[in-house]
Amino acid sequence: MRLVTLTLNPAIDQTVTLDALTPGSVHRARSVWSDAGGKGVNVACCLADWGLAIAATGVLGQDNAAPFAQLLAAKSIDDRFVWIPGETRTNLKLLDASGGDTTDINLPGLEFGPSTVEAVRAVLADLTGPGSLAVLAGSLPRSLGPDIYARLTAELKRRGARVVLDASGPALAAALAAGRDSLPDAIKPNRHELEEWAGRPLPTLADVLDAAHHLQRSGIALVCVSLGAEGALFVSSEGALRALPPPTRVASTVGAGDALVAGLVAGLHDGLPLPDLARRALAFAAGKLSRTGANLPPRAEVEAIAADIQVERLG
Ligand SMILES: Nc1ncnc2c1ncn2[C@@H]1O[C@H](COP(=O)(O)OP(=O)(O)O)[C@@H](O)[C@H]1O
Ligand SMILES: O=P(O)(O)OC[C@H]1O[C@](O)(COP(=O)(O)O)[C@@H](O)[C@@H]1O
C-alpha cells in the first residue's frame, strides 16, 4: 500500500521551556530546541520510525530548507515537497515546567497561489491510485480557500485512494459537507475541533460519542476523537470504544495528535480490528509523548505499550 502525507502549512516547532508561564511578564527561558514539523511531516516521521515506506508532500520554503531536508533524509522519507521562495513558518511552543502544559503559538505561514497548488496536485496524482492511502493534515495558508481538502479528497477518492483527514475549522467543515463518495475515510478531530464543527459544547463523553456516531453514519468509516490525557474515542461499523492512555512520562505533547494519526494509519495499513487499531494509535501517541520531536521508540517498545492499553466498549 502506497502511503503519502500532505502538509500545506508545515512549521519549525521552537519549544521554549519556562519555569512558569505568566502572561504579561518577562521570562528567561530554561532551554530552547527546534524540530522541523507540521502535521503531515510529523505523521510521516512516526510512520517511518515504525518501518513503513512513506512519501511526504506539501509546500516548503527554500530559505530555511535545511532542517526539513535533513529530517526527511534521516528518516528515509521520500521527499516530494514543492519548494517555493521564502521561509517556512516557525511556531512557538511554550512549555511551562511548573505544570507541564504547553501553550502553542502557531503562525500563519507561507502564502502561495494556484500554480503551487497545481504542482502539489500533480505530485499527489503521481503518488496515489487504487489501494493507496493519503493523509491530509494541518491548517491551510491564508491564500487558500477552505474547500481545498474537500477538493483533494474528492480527487483522491475518484482515483481509488483512501483519505485520512486531520483538519479543523472551515476546512474540516467543508470536507465533512461533501457527498458520500467524496468524504474522507477517517478523521481525527480533538474535542475542541469536534465542538467547533458541531457548533456546540460537548462536555460529556456521551456528547462526544453522539457527534462521532453522527459523522460515522453520514459515511466516514472511522471517526477518532482525541481527548488529550483522557485518551481517545473510536467509532466505526465495528462499534464504538474508548481507549485510555497508559501511564506515560511526558517529554513533550507537541505532535501527540499526529502520532495518534500515524498509529491509525499503521492500523489501517495492517487491516487491524477496531480494538487493536485503537491500541496501536494510543501506543504511538504514548511512545511519542516520551520523546521530543516526532520520534517513536523502537517498534517492539511501541508494541509492548499497545498490548497494555485498556479499551472499553461504549454504548
Ligand atoms: N497529557 C497526556 N497524557 C497522556 N496522554 C496524552 C496526553 N496528551 C495527549 N495524550 C495522548 O495523545 C493523544 C492525542 O492528544 P490530543 O491532545 O488529544 O491531540 P491533539 O494534539 O491533536 O489535540 C491522546 O488521544 C492521548 O492518547
Ligand atoms: O497545521 P496547524 O494546525 O497550524 O498545526 C501545526 C502544528 O501542529 C503540530 O503538527 C503538532 O500537532 P499536534 O500536537 O496536534 O499533534 C506542530 O508540529 C505544528 O507546529
TrEMBL record:
Superkingdom per UniProt: Bacteria
GO molecular function, one term: 1-phosphofructokinase activity
Biological process according to GO: carbohydrate catabolic process; small molecule metabolic process
Pfam families: PfkB
PROSITE patterns, per database record: PFKB_KINASES_1, PFKB_KINASES_2
Residue stretches making up the Carbohydrate kinase PfkB domain: 7-297
Record field: catalytic activity: beta-D-fructose 1-phosphate + ATP = beta-D-fructose 1,6-bisphosphate + ADP + H(+)
Keywords from the named record: ATP-binding, Kinase, Nucleotide-binding, Transferase
Gene Ontology, cellular component aspect: cytosol
Gene3D superfamilies: 3.40.1190.20
InterPro entries registered for this protein in UniProt: 1-PFruKinase (IPR022463), Carboh/pur_kinase_PfkB_CS (IPR002173), PfkB_dom (IPR011611), Ribokinase-like (IPR029056), Tagatose/fructose_Pkinase (IPR017583)
Task of the protein: Catalyzes the ATP-dependent phosphorylation of fructose-l-phosphate to fructose-l,6-bisphosphate.
Family per similarity comment: Belongs to the carbohydrate kinase PfkB family.
PANTHER family to which the protein is assigned, alphabetical: 1-PHOSPHOFRUCTOKINASE, 1-PHOSPHOFRUCTOKINASE-RELATED
Entry protein name: Phosphofructokinase
Organism lineage string: Bacteria, Pseudomonadati, Pseudomonadota, Alphaproteobacteria, Hyphomicrobiales
